[in-house]
Amino acid sequence: MLRKLKYFLIVGFITMPLLAAPYSGEAQGRRATKTQKAADKKKVKKEKKYQKSVKKGKKQHMKLQDKKVRKRMKRNARKNNKNNKRRNKSSKRSIFKRS
After folding, report:
1. What is the pTM of this model?
2. Where are the domains of the chain?
């Protein structure tokens, strides 16, 4: 009985680590690095997406700025046009007054 118990203990202590090896920390470590790599990939992808959106936002902002500039130019052109018309009218009047 004792001999059997000793035998099982010795055999158990030798074989258990061998059986458990694939599930030991080393394998988990490898799995962990895989998941870490995947997580890093995801992070990189997210960062790229974010940068793309930032770029898009900047583009949109510049478009808006251009739009505002064009609008301002049009407005100024209209004002100038009105002013020029007024000036021309007064100068025409003065010509007519002289003759």
Report:
1. 0.36
2. 23-98
